[in-house]
Amino acid sequence: MNKTVLQLQKAMGYILFDKPKQVNLALACLFAQGHLLIEDLPGMGKTTLAHGLAKVLGLTYDRVQFTSDMLPSDILGVSVFDQTQHVFTFHEGPVFSQLLLADEINRATPKTQSALLEAMEEKQVSIDGKTRALPSPFFVIATQNPQSQIGTFALPESQLDRFLLRVSLGYPSKQAEQQLFRGLNPRANIKKLKPIVSLKELSEIQAQVQAIEVSDHFLDYLYRLVDFSRTTDQFTYGISPRGALALLASAKAWAFIVGRKYATPEDIQAVLESVVGHRLHATGSEATNASAYLMQHVNVISQEPL
């Protein structure tokens, strides 16, 4: 395994106990130059994960607490008239940071949620008729509460598709929670974290991820998996081309994290649920978990003749 990856995993382990898979998925997402959605109950460590990633990757960081009365200008920025100069001066919003934490994004109205669409796709924002570039690199990590909770607005499919991966932290293990009971404070440990990679090194990692080799067998497996999602009647609609490319990018990033220069079908399986869980909608009795249904057919697909 890459030495830098091991250092990042160790550092994140100081603030997020016993969550190696979630940490690896988050790193894979950023290495693949994607945006991350973290869905879980309040108080599960979502903000801690985002802030910790910003610290160890040496990124400028800003956090926005989404609420029902928030306006798009609260995120993007606003032009203010300077009475002494008699000109409008643009004041940048928190989106002009390398890592933006959109905390509890589904508590804001759809109008405010959509303010991030252009930023996430084009790495720029259009304000007052002028296009402004965002910092490079630019990542969005959004957290959202379960839709069953009061005061939430479901993210539309168009915005969900902007997130490369969706992860859930889940409840801590017995050992991890006992550490919390004994007074260990993950938030306090964040202040002790130091940047492990420079922006140049992060760019080099992203280039190495893009250069991960994929065989014809790997691409055929990927296509058959995507095609199955489109042809089965268990889903209202299948994986889109953008979703298929997300699977490819995430699998290559996972291969890099585990220390290989080539991707295998096992890498697809490792990231499958996190990539398609927010993109697929199952019908009938499987409606509660589309990705689980697809996972059941992974082994069948892998055993079919090429």
Walk me through what this model shows.
The protein is α/β, with parallel strands linked by helices and 306 residues long. The protein has two domains: 3-202, Rossmann fold (3-Layer(aba) Sandwich), CATH 3.40.50; 212-303, Magnesium chelatase subunit I, C-Terminal domain (Helicase, Ruva Protein, domain 3), CATH 1.10.8. Helix content is 44%, strand content 15%. It contains 15 helices and nine strands. It has helices at residues 3-13, 20-31, 46-56, 73-76, 110-113, 117-122, 157-160, 174-181, 186-190, 199-210, 216-231, 241-258, 265-276, 290-296, 298-303, and strands at residues 35-39, 61-65, 77-82, 87-92, 99-103, 124-127, 130-133, 139-144, 163-167. Strands 2-5-8-1-9 form a five-stranded parallel beta sheet. β3 (77-82) and β4 form a beta hairpin. α2 crosses α12, α12 (241-258) crosses α13 (265-276) and α13 packs antiparallel against α14. The mean pLDDT is 88.
